Amino acid sequence: MRIPGTKVYRAFPEFDRFTDEQCERFLAAAVQMGWRRVLRWVITGVAGVVLFVIGIVGAVWLRFGTQVLPNSGGILMHAADLLCVLVPSCAGAFGGVLVRDVLLRQHLRRLINTRGSCAACGYRLLGLPVSEANTVACPECGHVSEVDPSLGELTVRETSDTSTAEVGSGGSGVAGKVERLFTPRQVVLKPGFWTAKRMEWVERWAKRSAVAGLALALAGGGFALYRSIVADLDASTASMMYDLDDLMMQHIQSVQPRGTLASEPNGWDLVAKVHEEMKAIDAKLLGEYAARAKRIDPNGNGLWLDMQMWGAAPVKVPETGNSDDGIDTRREQLWNLNTELPRRAVRRYEFAGLFEQLDQLSEIRRYEPAFKRVGRIGGVRGNRTDLMQLRDLSRACWARLRAAHADGDQAGALQTVKTMFALHRRVLSGFQVVEIGYGQHSMMNLNAAVGPFLMTADEATLAELSKLCGMADPTGWPASAVGGEEVLLSQELADVYSDASNTRWGVLSLHLNNGVPLTIGKWFDSRPLGSLRGNLGENAATLTRFVQLSAALPRNRPPLADLSRPQGWWDDFVIGDHFIAKYLIRYDKLQLHWRALETRIALERYKRRHGSYPKTLDLLVPEFLAAVPKDPWGPGTLQYWPLPTPDEDGRGYVLYSVGEDGVDDRALVHPVPGTAAVWYANVSSGLPSNIELNPADEPVKFRP
Known about the structure:
50% of the residues lie in helices and 6% in strands. The protein is mainly alpha-helical. The strands form 4 sheets. A 3-stranded antiparallel sheet has the order 4-3-5, with no helix packed on it. A 3-stranded antiparallel sheet has the order 8-9-10, with no helix packed on it.
């Protein structure tokens, strides 16, 4: 058995009695340059190219027409691309060698049958002496036949001290010295450095280099052709994909409350209008205070309008110089100036009727925000324009609730809480996953703001608040939000792949920056793009997994493969475990604070009914709660115990979660020298700690 492309003469039994050296000389003489040899090379090349193209088409189909090979980024992606380039290249090269073998075998068979056999009896004349006239006498019938000159390369004579035998005559004897019966070609050896051995070595490596260069050229051309076909197919698919505006609007309409009509007022119009008027008031107010701030600090502007500073206590400012602790008095004066701004802003909002307009939001069911396109590398991002507006309005309501509580206006405080719930529901509308970050902070602020109001509200008001809290249940949010997120991610990918020149080489082209410079370093560091179909499938699988994991408590979830945030910008388009980890923790904290608010309302209702807080949360079931809320990270339910006497903020119980580390430290801090230990929870930092769930409504304090 022989390897294709090598020793083609071994396919003929007639050459079995000849050595490889003889056969090689015969083959070289038989295929000397001529039109037949040129034709063989042409046919061989054409066959190799045809098989190479067929291999490329097959590789593209296997790569993108089936799910056999991975279509997403990573090591498997590189391996699949390499395989799709090497297989067609090898198929073309191997096919060319096979075609060459077939053509050579046909040529040798024709030579043996026509010019290597006796014209009279057909006897094979291989190995017999060839005359100068290229004739051989047949040993069977004596007929003299004209033969091909290459047969002379097979004629040898073995001589020894005892016997002589011709190879072609079938004689026997002891093999000895081999002599040719024809005049060999004269070999002229070059003197000096270029000896025959070195020339042979150079010739051998020149052939190998030529073969390697041809293979590289085929591989490079194959890769270029393969990537060109893939990019064009992806561009064609992307051009036929849906439009962001149409599909996103369909999703928005699908998550509206049941029975909502398109003719109803749009709550987004109200939010945008109130926010615009509010910002105009803020700008005018800051302009009025700018001159005073400039007199305090001529070198800078220390003004800021933070609505959560409402009620912050001013600090005592020395008449001259610095305060006793060395703090520059200008900072204290600016602090006192900024504490006035939220009070004046709230009064101006009330005078302009902005809060009265915003209160209508709780009665409006339809809410369809607009999306804007933000330029990004290789695509656009559809962002909701109202999330920051809702955040600003919620902070304004925070200050309004404090003002109403300070004025003893229970009706105004209740209406403000209703409006804050309405704003929170609009944040978590289920349009896209990014809502969860705003929704988490919205619920945390709401839970912190209603503390004083809950302690003074009557039972009827608490029952109404319990109903509002039930309407803010975020349990079904992930299933609706991932639908909109998939639309946005799909549109981003379609924008990337719609231009084939952007993706022709497997990573984003250098010229495509859309305002963000894409340097050579970033180009080489870029994650492979993969195929459009594969990336769409990977995003859909990730979003489905996100919904599945969100239904389980953190302590019951399987570990994610990678919780770190990848550095490549491409991971914003093709999401993975980092996406799940990022938004799951926010969803967990959102649910935690929502259940905490539900529990706090139930505790106050129990107190109104029974005169004191319950000893355990189990006493709230089933009259005020369907079940005791579970701690997402702890082994059981939320941690709770009543205090024998209210603390300095009037709170009569402790309610907290053990936090992400799962360690219950009883919500105590280590004693500070000169002070007493107090129970607390860290609701702002990302450090694992116990999380307080009934925080005090404390204003921001001045920190020297």
